[in-house]
């Protein structure tokens, strides 16, 4: 198994840019934000905690204030997201400016209500340092395919990943084997049980002085973990279906929580599937940094799928145990999805397939 020096290679998309002549994807595109201003130490911005279609709750000088009518109240008609920093006219409860975003976490969203499953890029949060991919043991079951897709999205957004296996009280050998794949890639892996209050201090250690976001499937325990970290019981949590082993989508909007000076977490609604159709098939290999030492294939445009093993460095490395089979299978699945989607973008059953694959 290739052992990476650090998980830096999972942190930014710089290496990906270098190799692909800085191609702009839906995930890293510069968002046109009108009246955005540069950061400056003299500014005293408020932080957006939560937004609705009309209003935004802002943390400002230790207090939470609500700005009503955000559509009319922001000079640039700018949409706001949790983690956004804004300059306020606090007296008149008006937003004067939005600070330039350090990072934007976005993901594709397939609108099933609209014809042809239109895919839009949806921003989840701004100014995030670290994203915790929360997964769970047993229910919902742990799927490495989902983790691999989320790792790609985070690399594209330039956000550090942490993997948190919650429900460690239900952990099996299968879960242990999956976690090992990511430990060997030097991605921080934390095990917690929100139920038994275990591993919470370790998780806090990784999140100290960071702006973090918890992402993942519904029912894995994102909100339960935040309740433990905050040492309260305020966030509503929901049961997981016994048969389906799926969550009930209890959290419906993202919200920013400060758990210590300088340390915050955004709770997000659980998702069903992660669409990766906007990625370019030629770029995918670069989102698997452990492939890099083995990219000397016989054919320059080798896709590491269709060439015979003896002609392909990546397939040979998988055969020799230098690259994890699970990661390679994710790569193949993602390539198939992207190529399939390119040919049949309107295929209405695709979403069902995506869900099954996660
Ligand atoms: N056994 C066990 N159950 C847990 C643990 N943490 C959370 N749960 C249970 O898992 C269920 C789902 O928890 P939530 O915190 O609502 O999950 P979520 O990820 O926020 O779900 P959404 O808001 O739907 O995205 C609840 O019934 C929790 O009691 C844990 O460590 N062990
Ligand atoms: Mg929740
Ligand atoms: Zn190859």
Backbone CA Rg:
21 Å
Largest sheet: 6 strands, mixed
Fourth-level CATH superfamily of the largest domain = P-loop containing nucleotide triphosphate hydrolases
Assigned CATH class of the largest domain: Alpha Beta
**β content, as a range?**
15-25%
Keywords:
358 residues, alpha/beta, SH3 type barrels, Rossmann fold, Ribonucleotide Reductase Protein R1, domain 1, six-stranded mixed sheet, globular, disordered N terminus, disordered C terminus, binds guanosine-5'-triphosphate, binds magnesium ion, binds zinc ion
Topology:
Blueprint: H1 14-19, E1 36-37, E2 46-51, E3 56-60, E4 63-67, H2 70-73, E5 85-89, E6 94-99, E7 104-111, E8 118-126, E9 130-136, H3 144-157, E10 160-166, H4 173-184, E11 189-191, H5 200-207, E12 211-215, H6 222-230, E13 255-260, E14 263-267, H7 313-319, H8 325-343, H9 350-357
Parallel strand pairs: 1-6, 9-10, 9-12, 10-11, 12-14
Antiparallel strand pairs: 2-3, 2-5, 3-4, 5-6, 7-8, 13-14
Helix pairs in contact: 3-8
Bound molecules: guanosine-5'-triphosphate (GTP), magnesium ion and zinc ion (ZN).
